[in-house]
Structure formats: C-alpha cells, structure tokens
From TrEMBL:
It holds the Pfam family Methyltrans_SAM. Residues 6-72 form the RlmI-like PUA domain. It comes from Zestomonas insulae. GO terms for biological process: methylation. Coiled coil: none annotated. Its main location: cytoplasm. It is found in: Cytoplasm. Signal peptide: none annotated. Residues 184-376 form the S-adenosylmethionine-dependent methyltransferase domain. Keywords: Cytoplasm, Methyltransferase, rRNA processing, S-adenosyl-L-methionine, Transferase. This is Class I SAM-dependent rRNA methyltransferase.
Length: 398
C-alpha cells in the first residue's frame, strides 16, 4: 500500500516523540499537505517538518484532532494483521488479571487502537467504533475479533456522541452471530445481566470493578443507599457482600428492572429496594422521612462533560455529596465517585471537605480508587484517566 504524506509544522513533533498519539489540525503544514486533500478514515505517513517519517496515522480532516498515530513502524498500516496483533497483546493483560472473560478488552488509545472500544461479556462482544478510520476498517475489526476470540455474537454499539465529531452516523446493530437484549457477566464473584442493546454505553461499566470490590469490608450488616444505581453494579454487590438493606435510586425504569433482575440472580432480592425518580428529589424525600444509612454510594453520570460545564458541574457534585452526607448515620461512610475527566481528584476531595465543613462535620479520607487495569492509562494522554473514587468517613461529633 502506497500512502500519501501528512507533514507537521516545525517543532510540532515534540509531543509525539514524547509518547502522545494525537495530532491537532493547527499542527499541520497545510501548505505542503492540505488536510482538504484527505477523506475521513484515510491513512497517511506522518512526517516531521524536515520530512522524516514518524509513523502511520488515521485521518479525520474535519476534526480538531485531525489525525491519530496508529503505528510508529511504517511497515504496519492498520489492517486485520495489525488488529489481530494488538488484540492479542490486549488479551494477554486481561487474561492475566481476571479469572472470568468479563472485562474491557480494548480501551482505545491506551491499547494503541485509537477509536476502538471492546467490552467482553463471556462470549459476547460489544464494540464501539469512535473514529472514521476504525469505521472504515469495520470488517477488519470484526474479522480480527472473530479470529482471536471466537465469540458467539458481536454487537456494534455505535451510538455515542464521539461519532458526531467524526461525521459518522449513529447506529446499533448485531454484526455477527446472535446477541440477546441482556447478556451475562460476572464481577467480583457476583453475577449480573446487562442490557447491552438498550442500556447505557456498552451496557455495563467495568471501570469501577476494583472500587466496587472494596465495598465488602464497609457494608457487612449495614444499611446502604446507592445513588444513580443503574442496574445495581454497586448496590447488588453491596447486598451480595452482606449488607442488611440496600436502596437503589435511579431515574430509569429499565435500569431498576435490571437491579431487580440482578438482585434475584444473586439471591438478595429481599435485601434490595428500588426507588425510581430524580435522585436529588429522592434525597430530599429520604431526608424528610428521617431515613439514615450506614453507607451511601454516590456515583453519578458525568456532571462535567466539557470544560465550560466546570462551574455548574462542581456545584452539582457539591450538592449531591452534601445531601448524601446529611443521610449518613453516626460514623457513616460515603463512597463518592466521578467519571468526569475534567474534574481532578484533588478537586473532588476538596468538594467533599467543603461539603462536610458546611455541615460542621469532619471527615477522614480512607481510600482512593481509580479505573481498573482493564482501562489502562496512557501516561502521555491525561484524557485516558477519568475515574475517581474516594471513600470517606463522616466522623461523629465530639
């Protein structure tokens, strides 16, 4: 394959040489290699300003991130062969870490497959193609996954907003075999079924696996409140770990159907109660009813999706955590999480501290958690680190 060249401006290669994979449109020497000459999904040889080749890139000419490095070796374009190799490398890590084939198999840039996410549910795969390059190589992606994993079914869950910036249509379709509406998985020894077709994202959030495992010593025999519960990742595991009562709050009827389904699956249905409705309204009603909980879990959706949302998002995190603290019993535990990449962990910690001080209470920070190792962080790309989980103890008043 003969590829065209894409040339950088002077000194624009420093970040790439340091390990980064992204190229921005203002870094391209458009006089030498106009972006308008490329189609979305094309591959090209990236060159430094002096003409030295830096590797192979996939191009999105109309995006701010106009190219992503696919390989630093000019012999390795993105094709089925490279995909098989990278999938095997990714698989070797997950098989070392987990005793069941339930995990995020591919996490985009961190697995050197930018624009590709693959979640594995035993023999069912849910795939997200977020770049024009991966979309163009959809058949190669499917062929590589089939060769490496021999799945029973593959679902393309291509309905994310990331596709909009790439000029790609959104769609959800079964691309191979048979994919049921709900699929089985296991996490921390607890069984679940996830709505991969109609649920959020890929149907499940493996990223908090390690943080949910750490619930066990805190919830034994305790009364637990799980806010933004989705299908019970936190709440059902808390019940399975021995909580006496668990209340799961979510605005989605489908999600709470999943909570009931998963509670039954694990024989803890009698310990689990679902509350459907707006979480903030539910918090007010629980406070008015003078309910108290030993452990409250607050794992909301991203309140800060873009930098311009920062002020309002921080206010929402503060409101949520302060109201959660008001429901804690004496010597209670709050697990506060954020999936907002734009909210640093230290800022979440400060929000918890200021919330506690507003209530004239003191807290102890007991544990810090991040995303599990099936969501490895690319050290040159801060955007690949987004999960924060802080476990704090609300101290009794002296």
């Amino acid at each position: 394959m003969t590829l065209p060249s894409l040339r950088l401006k002077a000194n624009a290669d420093r970040r790439l040489r340091a390990g980064h994979l992204w190229i921005y449109s203002n870094e391209i020497d458009v006089a030498a290699t106009p972006l308008a000459a490329f189609q979305a999904g094309d591959q090209a040889i990236l060159e430094a300003a002096g003409g030295k080749p830096l590797g192979i890139v996939g191009i999105s000419p109309n995006n701010l991130i106009c190219a992503r490095l696919l390989s630093r070796d000019l012999k390795h374009v993105l094709d089925k062969s490279l995909l098989v190799h990278r999938l095997n490398v990714a698989l070797s890590l997950r098989e070392r870490l987990f005793d069941q084939p339930c995990y995020r198999l591919v996490y985009g840039d961190s697995d050197l497959l930018p624009g590709l996410v693959v979640d594995r549910f035993f023999d069912i795969l849910v795939v997200q193609l977020a770049s024009a390059t991966m979309e163009r190589h959809k058949d190669d992606v499917l062929a590589a996954l089939i060769q490496v994993l021999q799945p029973r079914g593959i679902l393309l869950k291509n309905d994310s907003a990331a596709r909009d910036a790439e000029g790609l249509e959104r769609y959800v379709e079964t691309a191979f075999g048979v994919v049921p509406e709900w699929v089985a998985l296991e996490e921390n020894g607890v069984k679940f079924e996830a709505p991969v077709v109609g649920g959020q994202k890929t149907g499940w959030f493996y990223d908090h696996r390690m943080n949910r495992a750490r619930l066990a010593p805190y919830v034994q025999g305790k009364r637990v409140l799980d806010l933004f519960s989705y299908i019970g990742g936190w709440g059902v595991q808390a019940a399975a770990f021995g909580a006496s009562e668990v209340f799961c709050v979510d605005g989605s009827a489908l999600a709470l159907d999943g909570v009931e389904r998963n509670a039954t699956l694990n024989g803890v249905a009698e310990q689990v109660t679902c509350i459907e409705g707006d979480v903030f309204e539910a918090l007010k009603e629980l406070k008015a009813a003078e309910e108290r909980f030993d452990v409250v879990i607050a794992d909301p959706p991203a309140f800060i999706k873009r930098k311009k949302d920062l002020k309002n998002g921080e206010a929402a995190y503060r409101r949520l955590n302060e109201q959660a603290m008001r429901l804690l019993s004496k010597d209670g535990i709050l697990v506060s999480a954020s999936c907002s990449m734009h909210l640093p962990e230290d800022d979440l910690q400060n929000i918890l501290l200021s919330s506690a001080r507003h209530l004239d209470r003191n807290i102890q920070l007991l544990e810090r958690g991040g995303q599990g190792p099936d969501h490895p962080v690319h050290p040159a790309i801060p955007e690949t680190r987004y999960i924060k989980s802080l476990t704090v103890r609300l101290l009794p008043n002296a």
